[in-house]
Amino acid sequence: MCGIVAYLGNQDAYPRLIKGLHRLEYRGYDSAGIALLNGNIQVYKKKGKVSELEAHSAQQHTPATLGIGHTRWATHGEPNDINAHPHLSGNGRIALVHNGIIENYDLLKTALQKEGHTFESETDTEVLVKLIQAIQDRDGLPIEEAVRLALTRVVGAYAIVVIDQQDPNKLVAARKASPLVIGIGKDEFLLASDATPIVEHTNKVIYLNDEEIAVLHRSGDLEIKTISNEVQTPYIQQLDLKIEMLEKGGYDFFMLKEIMEQPMTLTNCMRGRINADEGWIHLGGVEEYASRITQAKRLIIVACGTSWHAGLIGEYLFEDLARIPVEVEYASEFRYRNPIIGEGDVVIAISQSGETADTLAALEIAKEKGALIFGIVNSVGSSIARVTDAGSYIHAGPEIGVASTKAFTGQVTLLTLMALDLAKRRGTISEGYYHRLLTELTLIPEKIKRVLEQDKKIQYIAAEIKDHTNALYLGRGYNFPVALEGALKLKEISYIHAEGYPAAEMKHGPIALIDDNMPVIVIATNKSAYDKIASNIQEVKARKGRVFAIVPEDDETISQIADYCIEIPETEEPLSPLLSVIPLQLLSYHIAVMRNCNVDQPRNLAKSVTVE
Ligand code: F6R
What we know:
By secondary structure, the chain is α/β, with parallel strands linked by helices. Helices cover about 35% and strands about 25% of the residues.
């Protein structure tokens, strides 16, 4: 949700900023801009993608060794050249890029207008840069002090980077509830919303903490203090990120690459954590708080979007295997509804980015009420990973396509490991079943490969669905959340309206929608409810609906009734979502490609939702 990049060093800033913006474009892509400082501050901004900014600025930009850049996901003010960042102070001396929302911007703006400041854009960001200018003008302060004092008056979330024309050897950055990473290179600093623009220059990074302000000097000095002016000791970490992970690797879209990577990412997620032969699971995060988690009265899972769907599968897993009551909450609802949380509760946050504002806020509430907070996160070093008491990374590597795929299966794998571990500790699972599930889980990556081999067939089915305007996804039990996830994948990247439903609920309403124009995608792999799902399919067929079914290999009954079938390998039912979701990911991918949609950057969406 808005990407920030900045450079200070002895090299040309422009190519580094542009490349950095391309890397960050998955965060927001409705407009982009850069500011370069070489005597004066030159600003180049353009509505649209980074490539449009590049076309506009490549020939005319000033050479400079200090600059800031931004790719925007609009909050205040429509996407256009004027609202694009960077924003300048009225005197042209200060330039600023911002990710987040200044909630009291209206109040601040009115006060500044009374002092004679005028505004060009509709953004909250312009208010902030003009507030910094007002403080600097009034008190003659160095830029970092003016920034710090301005931030004491701001309510809301921000990651900002600021440059001052009269201080060309300095970058000033600050954050609260929006991420910012400082890369320390040889004679240079790179600063960004995440490590992706940094990794090709250095692997030494500092993750700025909330309410910290950093001052980076051309001399190589670096200072960090809090907004309330307490000096902090920087903590330098090593990045564990490879450049190949950020490239498409020959695929047309990141989403397809990420779907295809799943056999590997799930292997990585399980590496060193499970041994089926010896019958053990080790999850570092769980072991640290083993007794509190094992004796939890209740697990509360908070998440958004696809991560919330993974949480729903978690509910089935924990209740079925470990017999612990579970509630799965949308983080955005949980945080505002005065939830009842006790010390015996364990709150599990699931997040790919680790930066989702609502999930972070839900965790703060849970923490205040004394619950243990556990994180299931992909992005290493992210805010959720740092605020939780304990947790486990899913190790899926960077997920760049906006539609989440490999993170989802990583989250479900981690939840499965955790549920099995707790089931064993609590004695709620038989030895035989525990060992069977462990063995089957380790076979999942190979079985996913077999599903991926059916890509051509799925492409054929996609062509049958692509011209429809609606679709219904049905599933039962463990595969009901998969139906929700399949529908979300379709609507977010192909803009076809889709709904996921528990198959048996269909007759309580959605059945009214079924006619020969309604594709119905049914996940029919559950052994325990096979006959019931077969009956649900008959109900659809009786109303002329066209059924596309995901069935187990060598299926005999449903394959006779459904119009089209995709066969997936058999597995134990609690593990079936890990296989049944794969054809649905591929289906939505191919439909979106056939509809000429921008698969990796669907309209209005952003990868990391750092605003409420
Ligand atoms: C859908 C999707 C979103 C995210 C949601 C939560 O494909 O990607 O629904 O799942 O915004 O994001 P994280 O997992 O980063 O907290």
